[in-house]
Amino acid sequence: MIISQDLLRAEAARRLRDARPELAAHGDLLSMGGLTAARQELARAAEEPRTLTVCVLRSLDLPAWIRATCVFAQRVAPSAAAAWRRDFTRTVFLAGNPENLAERFTFSHVADDGSAAWCGPAPAEDSAALRRLLKLFTAPAGLPAAPPTVVDLPPAPGSERAPARQHALHVATAGVTLGTGLVHLNHLLCEAVLDGTLASGDRLTIRQVPSLAGLEGPFTGLRIDTSVRDPDRLQAYAALTTRATYRS
Predict the structure, then answer these.
(1) How far apart are CA 28 and CA 96, in angstroms?
(2) Which residue(s) pair with 239 in the sheet?
(3) What is the structure's pLDDT at 24?
């Protein structure tokens, strides 16, 4: 199994149906026309999400942020997760220092080094004051290349340490800004944790590559969006596998 337009359409359609089953009534989600129509309706709805998460970033070290994001998602209550999934794990990234905000706002999770903190998932109005106070974390620079990096997710408190499950996290970098890359990774990681694909004690090997074209599955997670080069095609921006092979 390799990444193809058929595979990407099928996975994008599955994600839409799982989160919003009523979208199946909008036509054939496996066709690009039907999928585009459903995604356009979602884009309009996303302008006023009911449930969202806010991530405040002081600085960014990608492996550390990936680890902290997974820990945050592991602590989301099932009831909040269900509402958040209906809004497609919508997350707003803001630039700020969590330490300076601790007296005014209650965070759901703070990274061990204090570089990032999360509020929610919760009704959008709960974070309105925080979103008005801080600017968006846009990070227009390109997602940098990097050698493979291993991230170990911490074991659950009080649990016996089991053999780590091995995953590869593949991240496309060509034409992707750091800010956009965070959005793609956030969706993939949080949904993988909520689905049980990623769990406490697992090991992730991060592989940053220009493109995921030629990457072989099976895939345990895919982050898909419109291609940066062709609006009529889809592109995989991040993927999870249990092994890392590319077709030459």
Answers:
(1) 43
(2) 170, 222
(3) 63
Domain span holding position 219: 5-246
The count of C-alpha atoms lying within 13 angstroms of the C-alpha of 118, restricted to the half-sphere facing its C-beta, is 24
Work out the average pLDDT over 28-53: 70
Phi, psi of 25 (to 5 degrees): -75, -5
Provide the pLDDT confidence category of residue 159 given band limits of 50, 70 and 90: low
Number of domains in the chain: 1
Please report, for residues 66, 96, 166, 175, 221, the alpha-carbon distance to residue 193 in angstroms, rounded to integers and kept in the order given: 12, 26, 14, 27, 10
Q: How many residues does the chain have?
A: 248
Q: Alpha-carbon distance 159 to 26, whole Å?
A: 45
pLDDT at 23: 67
